[in-house]
Protein 1
Amino acid sequence: MENPLIQLANVNKWYNQFHVLRDIDLEVRRGERIVVCGPSGSGKSTMIRCINGLEAYEQGTITVAGERVDQDDDNIEKIRQRVGMVFQSFNLFPHLSILDNLTLGPIKLKRVPRAAAEARAMELLERVHIGHQALKFPNQLSGGQQQRVAIARALAMEPDVMLFDEPTSALDPEMVKEVLDVMIELAGTGMTMICVTHEMGFARAVADRVVFMADGAIAEVGTPDSFFSAPRTERARQFIQQVI
Ligand code: ADP
Ligand code: MG
């Protein structure tokens, strides 16, 4: 069988005395879509931030496309090019146009010629239905539009996998759908995705597996159907009642 694109093996992490990730084992195949959910403070953000080297971990191993994720600068650079990340707070560069937000990484980090980077950026902006806004600045766009730009910006680096950390939880309700729709379209392209989200409809529509975290550990893994309809642990049952 093909090696997993992402592998976390026995990962443990502490914030000082606080054991934030406990014996995390997770393998993600290329093209697979994982939804990560669980109560606030259960370690979801920490886990996905470890995958692209935004956080260090003390024990275990994480590999992306066979490359071990550690805190060595060259390594981090390589990993970040392979792993796109979308945050809750869009994190666009406020002083750059939408187009320049997309081309900065490819031009600076991948040495793509400007014309080619701009052509690709426009394709991606069309794909997230925002091509006509290319010359605006982030603060001229709605939250939902900014988040779609953030997705396009991550895709501009041609990543192997996209990580999403509660991408819709800072949005006004009427903008949630436009972002989820873009994520569903992205799933349709075969992109490998790990999404921290409590959007059950999204999970049911695209997830191959749901990973439920509690107290820094993976407490359950299942298909969306089995997880949401027949959770095995009391923690998961309680959690599902709250998000429904
Ligand atoms: P989640 O994303 O599931 O809400 P997080 O991964 O953000 O959880 O946080 C897990 C736990 O680690 C929480 O108890 C949080 O307070 C703690 N934590 C997160 N970041 C830090 C940090 N930089 N220093 C100390 N504790 C942290
Ligand atoms: Mg979080």
Note: The longest strand covers residues 18-28.
Protein 2
Amino acid sequence: MTDFPRGFRWGVATSSYQIEGAADADGRGPSIWDAFAAVPGAVANGDTGAVACDHYHRMPEDVALLGELGVDAYRFSVSWSRVLPTGAGAVEPRGLDFYSRLVDELLGRGIEPFLTLYHWDLPQALEERGGWRSRDTALRFADYALVVQEALGDRVTKWTTFNEPYVSSIVGYGEGRHAPGAREGHGSLAAAHHLLVAHGLAVRALREARPDHEFGIVLNQSPSVPVTGSDADAAAARRHDLLLRRQFTEPLFGGAYPEDYEETFAGVTDASFRLDGDLELIGQPLDYVGINYYYRQHVADAPHRDPDPATRTSIDIGIDTTRLPDVPRTAMNWPVEPHGLTDTLVGLTRRYPDLPPVYVTENGCVYPDNPGFVDQERIEFLRTHLAAARDAIDAGVDLRGYFVWSFLDNFEWAHGYRPRFGLVHVDYGTLVRTPRASFHWYRDLVAEQRAAVGAAG
Ligand code: GBH
């Protein structure tokens, strides 16, 4: 592969609820995912994150594996309810201590921590007070962020506020496929806005405390492609892009909500959750933006399922996303179209002149396991997507690093443990970790790239 620029960061990613387990350990309070996973039928096979990879108890072993992999950076998230069991008020020092030990282990092996404050696991106590529908949750988030920075800010300098606010708000409060399992119109759009407000409040407070730190947000991004050349399908793809992406990227990087927001959600919300000053808060400069890319979205026009906007959920915007192209698919049924990553990165760079430097903070896939964990399909997926990322750099994108999703097999949300995204296989009976062929491939790639650019360490 062509060389990546000097200083390019090679990493892998995970998130707290997906790997930690130890749901009741050391005073941790329940999150919305503990509550949601307990609802019959919510998660495939009745799986929950109660044990997951038991990373909470096996963390040093896992960081040793990261050391073997030789990555520069590790992206992980903090469980809010480990640090503040009810989301606000009393701090649980044992929870904070876990992350402090993790950071020390990482730094001891020369691996830079990329810390995400929120990867979908809201403290259940806050959900009971309205969750992200409520602006108050945004204020609580900023308080929580400061608690974590206070404890780890002498060693952690890269702070991501949110992972994919689209999923937390629209999939959680609109589609109901994720925690907390609500199917609302106005409520889910309020959640989306409050997540952005929370991002802004946290960045402002954290930057004031530590101007030397770097702050960013992670967004799911990919092209929404109309399935035909018709105007109707083009308009549907545009609505889809608004719902999944532009309602976040425009306030963050464009200074305003998108022009077509009002029309798309007419009768669903009056956007009364927007207050004066919010856009300034949301649009403050960032040091980086993380992009999670998985697959291109193919969109057709379709009738609304609920003809009455007053009772309609936010995802019911007159679209059909089930008409997939005739291209290879992963075991998630996700189309494999690596050039979609180039288009995504180049498109964002062109659309937003003030876009900060970019990381690909997630990219990865699931295929059925082969004997001996020889996951040639994953290697091919990662290789072609990295080439697509390299093309984006050539086209002028300021891409600073790439993180594979995921380091370990883990709890894949509503799909439970069946989809395995890891470079490392986890046996959920014995919790034994076994590196797949892709682990060795990525290790060699990182080593080669480092040698090629002649960077130290
Ligand atoms: C990520 O979610 C998560 O951060 C991670 O926890 C999860 O395990 C991993 O991916 C694998 O699923 O907006 O155009 O990108 C990704 C889930 C899949 C949500 C794609 C948004 C729509 C396409 N996403 N999806 S797009």
Note: Residues 186-209 form the longest helix (24 residues).
